[in-house]
Amino acid sequence: MATNKPILSVIVDRRLRNKLEKYAKERKTSLSKIAAYFIQRGIECEKNTIEDLGISILDLFPELIWIKDASLRYKYANKKFLDFFNINSFSKIKDKLDLDFLDEETAKTCLYGDMLVINTKSSFEGVEILYKNEHKYYLEVNKIPIFDKENNFVGILGIARDITHEMALREKLKETTEKLDKFVKDSSSLCNTDFLTNLPNRIKFIDIVLEELKSDIDILEPSYLILIDIYNFKFFNKIYGIDIGNEYIKKASEELLHFFQNLDVRYEIGRIGDDTFSVFIKGEVDIDSISNQIKNIIENIYIRDSYGKIIKVPEVLIVSCKVLPDERLNVDNVLTQLEIELSKHKNLYVKNSFDDFSSNPVIRNCENHSILYDAVENGNIVPYVQGIYSVKDNSLLGYEVLFRVKNNGQLIEAKDFIFTAYATGLILSIDKLILKHINKIKSKINKKLFLNISYMSVYHCETTSNEFIDLLISLRDKASFEISESEFVENLRIIKKIANKYNLNMIFDNFGEDHCPIKLIVDIYENSHTPLLKFDKDLINSILYNKKNEAIVKAIVDFAKASGIGTIAVGVENDQMYEKIKSIGIDYCQGYFLEKPKSIENILVA
Q: What does 478-505 look like in DSSP terms, one character per residue?
């Protein structure tokens, strides 16, 4: 081996250094550790003492590198080491101990790692904290034992990387993270709280109601949800300004809290929209009386505008429903349906004042949700039909398919459950049950069917690949599918896409409940094979005494005839109504005057 180049002198070659760098990268380690390996191997193979090492190559490394003998005296230190400790020549520390040139605390720190290496005869890795010129430094240290070729311990190779800057960044990151965590904790309540009134927002309010309902799941104590809407509040804001509007909202929230604090009831109040509050009341109460008192309180809030003039809001609209504890109840859907009901009654065609509506809340169907769940699970959703007849010659156009809920031998009309069906999401299951039933007996039906389907079912067709589309396609030659005006308007793009993609006939139902623009009708029936338009029942009922509404219906009928669209009046209950729609020119009608709903089994043919 004496004739070969010593390993340590070979690695001085920069070409070999490049190869070593590649080797270190492949093994995911540092070049200094690779060098340390060669130093140790060099001692084993070439030399008997550390003093004989020629290792100037180590001056090229960015790490601090040093070598101590078995007595922990320095035998080598590279330039990076010397620069770090402000030492201009290695001769000043050669054969010295740490205590000879380092402060006592730093020397003790270095000695601790060295002793671990000596005692265990294995490497030590860790972070050592050193102080230099009253500054704190962090060194990531790796100390490796060195053995001669007889495997005697002869010294320690030390490699260190200055990570002070990294630790500062780490401390800064930790500090920032702690501040962020504190901010998140502090702001979590803000995320769940309306900034203006400090009431729970919609998300938090729903969570509170769910917890309250779950807590009484075994008691079955009834509760109530009230929705309070400040009618046309956006115009109030436009007229008087946002600041005045905010002042009114704050005052309204204060009055609500004051009112319920003086009632002997358990309650929660939330601001669930810009101009909408919701109240959850636990226990049986006189909900009509409470609704009227709330309406009176909020409508009689007086504030001053920027000119000092006293103002108040013109009207407050209130709807409510009773709910029973049930873990399956979707509170968000219930609130949504209350909002839909409230929206409908903002544009009532009938002459009822909203005072009458608010004092006699019409939404009481949530208490039936257990019955509806059981009916869906047990297949007790029964299809019924009602004939649609030509006004001109009384010929049968087809049948609208309705549903009844079978409960304890009784059949209950859909109107008593439709709110619950939407609020719980069960409308999707009901639509599917009806479609499956019709599909089984379609060969025995020789007339056109008009099937009501919900917007949820249409959306389900668009977003989920399942049997629903197959059911609709299987019935497209036998049926047209009715979708209400509000749902048509909100989901027009999806409805048209589904209709065109699968060649389905979609019928515009309940026209007139939401003031649909005429152009929308043209868009809907652009490619329809069965262009039919069904008027809303309330609108049809109003034409007997409301000349304006009669004129509106007549104008729509004339437009429909010019556009090749047939019209259907629903809710025709007497001969007076029948003669009125006949005079207006409506094409078809259905209602108790012509035929009561009957079981679908009654229209089957052999």
A: TEEEEEEHHHHHHTHHHHHHHHHHHT--
Residue 189 lies in a domain: no
- On whether both 457 and 346 belong to a single domain, the answer is no
Round the CA-based radius of gyration of the chain to a whole number and report it: 42
Asked whether residue 186 is domain-assigned, the answer is: no
Residue 349 clears pLDDT 50, i.e. is over it: no
381-439 per-position pLDDT tens digit: 999 999 999 999 999 999 999 888 888 888 888 877 777 777 677 888 888 899 999 99
Shared domain check, 277 and 416: no
- Residues composing the chain: 606
**Contact status, residue 569 vs residue 372, Cβ threshold 8 Å:** no
Residue range 524-549: mean pLDDT, rounded: 80
pLDDT > 70 fraction of the chain, expressed in percent and rounded: 77
Mark whether 498 and 574 lie in a shared domain. yes
Structural domain of 18: 7-168
Q: Which of 271, 299, 580, 330 is nearest to 456 (CA)?
A: 330
10 Å CB burial of residue 73 (0-12, 13-18, 19+) is: middle
- Among the three residues 363, 395, 427, which one is the final residue of a domain in this structure? 363
Distances, alpha carbon 367 to alpha carbons 344, 357, 380, 409, in Å: 22, 19, 18, 19
Give the pLDDT band of residue 38 (cuts 50, 70, 90): low
Asked whether residue 211 falls in the same domain as residue 249, the answer is yes
Residue 472, class by beta-carbon neighbours within 10 Å (0-12 exposed, 13-18 middle, 19+ buried)? buried
Is there a single domain that holds both residue 122 and residue 213? no
Give the residue with greater pLDDT, 165 vs 191.
Answer: 165
Residue 552: partners with Cβ closer than 8 Å, 6 or more residues away: 512, 539
Domain of 590, CATH number, reads: 3.20.20.450
Q: Report the pLDDT value the prediction gives residue 359, as an integer from 0 to 100.
A: 33
- For residues 372-397, one letter each, b for 16 or more C-beta atoms within 10 angstroms of the residue's C-beta and e for the rest, the string is bbebbeeebbbbbbbbbbebeeeeeb
Q: Quick one: average pLDDT of 107-135?
A: 86
Nearest to residue 340, comparing CAs of 460, 213, 229? 229
The tens digit of pLDDT for each residue in 358-377 reads: 333 333 344 466 788 888 88
Structural domain count, the chain: 3
How far is 282 from 221, CA to CA, in rounded Å?
Answer: 8
Do 576 and 518 lie in a common domain?
Answer: yes
For residue 340, the domain's CATH number is: 3.30.70.270
For residues 95 and 142, membership in a common domain is answered with yes
Mean pLDDT for all residues in the chain:
79
pLDDT recorded at residue 449: 92
Give the dihedral of Cα atoms 426, 431, 437, 438; nearest 10 deg: 170
99-108, 267-276, 391-400, 457-466, range with the lowest pLDDT: 457-466
